[in-house]
Amino acid sequence: MRTDAGTGARRPREISYAQAVREALREELRRDSRVFLMGEDVGIYGGTFGVSAGLFEEFGSDRILDTPISEAVLAGAAAGAALTGTRPVVEIPFSDFLTLALDQIGNQAAKMRYMFGGAVRVPLVVRSPAGSGTGAGAQHSQSQEALFCHFPGLKVAVPSTPYDAKGLLKTAVRDDNPVVFLEQKLLYKVSGPVPEEEYLLPFGKADVKRAGSDLTIVTWGRMVGLCLEAAERLAAEGISAEVVDPRTLVPLDSGAIVSSVAKTGRLLIVHEAVRTGGFGGEIAAIVADSAAFPLLKAPIRRVAGFDIPIPYSPVLERNAVPTPERIEAAARDLVGRTATV
Amino acid sequence: MIDPSSAADIATAAEAGTRLGYPESVLEDLYVRMLRIRLFEEEIHYHMSRGRIHGTTHLYVGQEAVAAGAAANLSDRDYITSTHRCHGHAIAKGTDLGSLAAEMFGKRAGVCGGKGGSMHLADPARGNLGGTGIVGGGIPIAVGAALSIRRLRQDRVVVCFFGDGAMNEGAFHESANLASVWGLPVLFLCENNQYGVSTHVSRSTNLEDLSIRASGYGIPGRKVDGMDVLAVYEAVRDAIAYVKTRGPLLLVAQTYRFLGHSKSDANVYRTEEEIAAWRRRDPIPGFRDRLLAEGSFREDRLSDLEEEVRREVDAAFRYAQACEEPGPEDLLGDVYAD
């Protein structure tokens, strides 16, 4: 998909992450009449971040449902609807608010299939934007993906590009399990190549966003872009970083992570979420348990959000989560270099 | 077995001589549904007290008229959502007793493959969307099922069972409000059994009449005597007629659980006298007396029915105990659908 302009091949069109999500929704709403979208302000308002703009006009109030501010019943009603023959997509305006729906997501939707001995399918998607960087403070800025990875029965997607967001969301809508789809609010306006023709991306298949040989950086969501920029600067210093984006944390492509680490011998994990209990710890443990462990040339490193709520001040907020400087410093440290600039 | 002599008070209703006014098949159906629940749960109580069933259980004894009277109005196409006290709902909705008993024993042949247990009985083929261990947790699910009915333009209804305790959960408030705003076909059926574990409803809710909460959501609220199966049957029948065309309704059934909240409950928070007073209103012998007074059910016919249900329950428990345990190969499956 990443056609090089220099070769003269036709460049694919570029659209924003928000447009990519909207396209996925539009295509799935057109394809399957059982699919519908509900959430706070998803109708004529177009969604808190404008993601659903235009869908109400095309599909009407029967398919695009504005709701009261009632996250618990939204998630629970999605589960009930999913059990009974429809395929709901729920938008929750900020992923922080998912805690209000956590019983319905984690105790009800996630567990139903197992508790009921496999007798039901629960095809629902809860979409919600995650991440800091908007100055909205501690309750509108979190990255809580690890929380949802801790409920067997849920799938968890954390797309980092418009291309991934579209392909993964279409897969999520067709999946017969509850999917927590964590969009990245700072990426909504970022554009990238997305083909005109339909495509789907499988869950549980990592994407090597950049090949390299000296260290593996495993990262997801908004941090992928930061790590790619860091990798570019590190390359100028002669450090070759491979950037592996799992794209979905549940299911997780452990094989791709382990193979990359076996090749490079070094692992740096970067996530925006707070360090303690973050999913980076799980990835470190998977590698420590794997055949790649004896091939490690250095200890596994994590660069993560500090163990603090996201602060308001832009100076503080920027430094609460991984910065390019911290990522690069950790990478240099891992390969035994000090900064050359 | 039911002892009709213990229900002298109820006989007064029958002595009033009111004809029940229903076909015998309807009356028999109501009686059998209640009996199935009572005898099934007495067996659970027996086996649990002997350590043959592990875990805990929340028995429905005393509340049978609510599940039976409600479910007699429903077909397999209609949905229910249930609670932690879910045996009665599952039985009334028609799930095979053998597979329910097998679930209680944790067997592979159980209705949930031995993975759900006492609080998670579900039978989607019969419209039972399952019990939940979280108080109020099933209420939003009911709203979602009603949303599917609306979106798929089906002629179905959802009966959402929950207790007086669940009425103070946010899930109830959010659900009643959303169902009302969208006019969804869901009957909120509150079984006010007077206690949330040990806390009497008067100490958890500052209302004499829980049904007036409905007005806060712009929906009708009604009450019914939950110890009278025919009253429940009629109230639910009328409520469903309303719900299918006009949207949600709250129906509060006044009832009582004769046994403890769960197996570990020593009943220290209520008096023997209170329990005895409610037991005099036991819905099963009470209804039996009314059937006899009606004249169309003779003693021998009721005895035959009771024997038949007794045999069915005994067979279910024999079957359940003989079933295979699940194996290690069952442990990891059913988390995700393919």
Report on this structure.
The complex is a heterodimer of chains A (341) and B (338). By secondary structure, chain A is of the alpha/beta class. Chain A has eleven helices and 14 strands. Chain A has a seven-stranded mixed β-sheet with strand order 3-2-4-5-7-6-12, with helices on both faces. A five-stranded mixed β-sheet of chain A has the order 9-11-10-13-14, sandwiched between helices. In chain A, strands 1-8 form a two-stranded antiparallel sheet. In chain A, helix 1 runs parallel beside helix 6 and helix 3 runs parallel beside helix 4 (102-115). The model of chain A is unreliable at 1-5 (pLDDT under 50). Chain B has 338 residues and is α/β, with parallel strands linked by helices. Chain B has a single domain, classed as Rossmann fold (3-Layer(aba) Sandwich), CATH 3.40.50. Helix content of chain B is 45%, strand content 9%. Chain B has 13 helices and seven strands. Chain B has helices at 8-15, 24-49, 64-71, 87-92, 97-104, 139-151, 170-182, 201-204, 229-246, 272-279, 283-294, 299-322, 328-331, and strands at residues 79-81, 158-163, 186-192, 195-196, 199-200, 221-225, 249-254. Chain B has a five-stranded parallel β-sheet, sandwiched between helices. Chain B has a two-stranded antiparallel ribbon with strand order 4-5. Chain B is globular. In chain B, 53% of the residues are buried.
